[in-house]
Amino acid sequence: MDHQPENDQLSSPAIISDRVQVNGIVTPLTLTADGELWWTESGRRKSTAVKDILSFVVESNKVRVKTLVERGGGICCGETAGDYARKDFVFEPLSDESRKLWCDKLHQHLESLGRPKKLLVFVNPFGGKKSARKIFLEKVKPLFEDADIQLEIQETKYQLHAKEIVRSMDVSKYDGIVCVSGDGVLVEVVNGLLERADWRTALKLPIGMVPAGSGNGMIKSLLDTVGIPCSPTSATISIIRGHTRSLDVASISQGTTKFFSVLMLAWGLVADIDIESEKFRWMGSARFDVYGFQRIICLRQYNGRILFVPAPGFESYGQPASCSSVDKESPISDKELGYQGPDAKLEDQEWREIKGPFVSVWLHNVPWGAENTLAAPNAKFSDGFLDLIVMKDCPKLALLSLMTKLSDGTHVQSPYVAYLKVKAFVLEPGARIDEPDKEGIIDSDGEVLARGRRSYKCDQKALMSYDKLQITVDQGLATLFSPE
């Protein structure tokens, strides 16, 4: 083809370049290897955003390219959400041969990107402000359809519904799983995949999140890492692009009972706020601030002890501890179905301890616990460590000030906070120091793991008892759709 633009104007080599009609005017049009379309209009060079061609269709003699551009640039000023806008770019090749070649090159380019072709989508209509169905229909589904991605949609009808489905589904039918929800459905999906006999294969299936719940900590962590706004549109685009990254999975065990966590574990103040604030769920994420203030005014402290294996560089925290309190890992039987946790050889580690009383003990796998809570600013997705945030004592006024710093992560700089990384962890929870007949709540990923005596809704059954539990980390075990 002729009329190539100057090479120094292009961000990457041209795949195809030819003269076409755009808005009735003949102009050179170029598709680059990076997925940009370049052309001239009214004497000015224009282009689409890199790798944001979603799909294309042929309409008689014209080719309609469905594009996605960054707001404020590119080819259009369409309806925006987040930092992106959707707009079609239409051009007319000057011959049948040219049109066929354009279609072949566009198809080859889209195929080369490795984008997902079929997704299983869970929509949780009960999470947060109960807006997931509306978000999916208005923001998510149209983008997936524009990208020619086939969807199998499943609304969750009750707690653990998603877990039941992924535990027995045919994973070979899909290129990924999408959770239009808060973090709860993601946790169900990971636990369901890990309970499968073919968990090694199943965990290679990428999981994507679209924020539609109260917390949305995982998708906030993914998007914020690269400076992208946490919105349904931004999250959907990240899934369409098909990039993936690995994610550490924490195995929480108590005897033979196991739970797999991807976000956090909390005991004390943070757990009390997270779980007891559910009475204000209709408020969305604001429920945490409102109930957090109430909980600080009537502050609780808990007796107990934590043991941990510090990551390199954090050996000065706590005091040396015996490993006699650490349960030895049970040998894994080949007959057992599902993932049984990492072979950590806990008894061979150098353990340290911190004794209570505690205001709060918080373990985090990723930076953000919610869209407005940068709980662990140094947390990484797959470094093989958990970030531990411990508060033993803190005046109420100082604690109120700390709570305002959760939005930017500077709370970890407080002299009242110990912030470190650990490879393994043991929690021995105790009773409240002001009312010894009352115990607390252990919360993992927004769900109650254990309820102590006379705690909130203590009559409800929990997965584990309010007793010693231990946590180990398996580096990079799960797979997530990621913006980069």
Q: Can you give a write-up of this model?
A:
The chain is of the alpha+beta class and about 475 residues long. The chain has three domains: about 5-110, Roll (PH-domain like); about 120-240, 3-Layer(aba) Sandwich (Rossmann fold), CATH 3.40.50; about 250-475, Sandwich (Tumour Suppressor Smad4). Helix content is about 20%, strand content about 35%. The chain is built from ten helices and 24 strands. It has helices at about 95-110, 130-145, 160-170, 185-195, 200, 215-225, 230-240, 270-275, 285-295, 395-405, and strands at about 15-20, 25-30, 35-40, 45, 55-60, 60-70, 80, 85-95, 120-125, 150-155, 175-180, 205-210, 245-255, 255-260, 265-270, 300-310, 320, 350-355, 360-365, 385-390, 415-430, 440-445, 445-450, 470-480. Strands 13, 14, 15, 16, 17, 18, 19, 20, 21, 22, 23 and 24 form a twelve-stranded antiparallel beta sheet that branches. Strands 1, 2, 3, 4, 5, 6, 7 and 8 form an eight-stranded antiparallel beta sheet that branches. A four-stranded parallel beta sheet has the order 10-9-11-12, with helices on both faces. A hairpin with a 2-residue loop joins strand 3 and strand 4. Helix 2 packs parallel to helix 7 (about 230-240), helix 3 (about 160-170) packs parallel to helix 4 (about 185-195) and helix 9 runs antiparallel to helix 10. About 45% of the residues are buried. Residues about 1-10, about 75-80 and about 330-335 have low confidence and may be disordered.
